[in-house]
Structures are given as structure tokens and as C-alpha cells.
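User: Continuing from earlier, I have the next pair ready.

Assistant: Great, send them over.

User: Here they are, in order.

Assistant: Folding the first of the pair now:
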Amino acid sequence: MRRRTSGGLLAAATAATALAGTAGVAGPAAGTAHAAGPAAACVMRENSPHTDWTGMTWDADMMCDNAPGDVHLQSFADSPVVGRMVTTRSWFVCWKVGDPHAGGNDIWYYTQGDEVVSRPTAQAWGYMPAVRLETSQDPEPGLPKCSWG
């Protein structure tokens, strides 16, 4: 589980995400804009607990291929960057509507980044725009909407 920014934990998280979920290949659905190339299917994982910096908890997540990038405190392009995702298969716990982004929609996915960039109390928890994830559609079926979004 990604929790901190130390090299050992990041290396372990990178190795774990590389081993997790090697399901079939699925491309983006019509009407979605994602990075070119086929994507491994997103995989829902039960019994995969997470607690964010506010105390919110989840008992499941979704593993998806993703492009490395910034994790924003809120689901807005000009929101502070609190974390950075460096792994390319990562977990996400929910989604919400935010600013439109380059992917042609306004869906953002909530996660914890691999590295803390600012606001250490947020522990790199925040949102990545859907364009950074290889999903079949946005929002990805099966992943819950964030309760506050």
C-alpha cells in the first residue's frame, strides 16, 4: 500500500502495483480521451483498506494503469498540487466531478500520491484527472462516487 515517500516503501509499492491485476486488455470507450495504446482493465479489489488524512475510510479500491502526474488537493486544475504519482499502475478509491480537463470530461479520481509535494498534512491525498487513467469509461463502472462530491 502506498503510504509514505521513503525509497523502500516506494520501491515496494512500485513492485506491488506491477504484480497486481493483469486482467485482459480493454481500450477506451467511444467518447473518452485517454493516452494512446491498449490498457489493462481496471480491477476492483475488495478487502483493500485505505484511510485518508481526514479520517475517511474505504474497504476497497480500483487498480488502473495510469500516467505519472500531479495529484491535486481538489478536483480543479488550479488547485494546489499536494502529491505526485510516479507509479504507472495505481489504486483509486472514488471519483467526483470537477473542472473539465484534456480528457474531454470532468471526472477526477481520488487517490494517494507516491510522493508528497506540498501540504504534508494531506499526505499526498487528492485527485487526478481521468485523462491520466486508462479506464474503459469515465467514471469507471464499479468505483463509487466520492460521498462529498
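And the other member of the pair:
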Amino acid sequence: MAVQGGTSRNPGHLGVTPHRGDLFDAACPTRQLLDRVGTKWTTMLVLTLDQTDGELRFTELKRALTGISQKMLTQTLRSLERDGLVTRRVEPSVPPRVFYGLTARGKSLAQPLAQLREWAEIHMPQIQHDQDAFDRSL
């Protein structure tokens, strides 16, 4: 951990905060990022893009993410692009063809999201059983 100007800095923080963050603080940048990354649409989008060898068109993503509205897909893609997790490429044609892919940082997010998905799939039957038992006890 480097110390600069009397403030300790952890890798990846680029001087934004003097510490790793406080998830209990609503203004914490780490918390804000986790709020975005933790949505179902972000998870599904990152995992879908990770399964390709390159890019997918907007329409292909819309088709792959069953139930997502065009507005939500656009908002999610813009947030991920803003965070440097997704690239956007426009091919000049009529109509324009828009392609999306993961950046290196986005690809690094895919592995923990895939692990979370696997955990959920493994534990979901027992969780559903526990939910049913809880609901019956009310």
C-alpha cells in the first residue's frame, strides 16, 4: 500500500478515496458500483457477452436477455460503457448497426458473476424449500 501526502491508497482507487470504501455509506463509490453490477440485467448482459468471441449487436442482446425492455437494455449498456466494462461500436449503415463487447475489465467481472450464478443454481432448491417452510409457518 503506497502512502502519498499522508493518505494511504489501495490499488485500484486512483486517489478517489483514502481507503477501500465504506459499503454502509451511500456515497461510497464502491457501493455505487456494486449496486450497478449487482442487478440481474447487468449480470445477464456481462455473462451473455462473455459467451461470445467478440461482439453482439443490440438486437442480438435484446433477443438473448428475455424480458428486458429496450429502454432498460440501453440504460444498462450505457452504464457499463461509462464504467469501462463494455465497448460500443457503430457501423455506418442504414439503419446503423451497433455492436457491444466486453473490455478486459468487463471480462474480469464475468468470472465472479459466473461463480455467483453457479452458487445460486446449486443452492436454489434448498433456498426454495426454506422459503416454503418459512411461508407455511406464518
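Worth noting for the second one:
Helices lie at 29-37, 40-50, 58-64, 70-82, 104-137. The chain has five helices and five strands.
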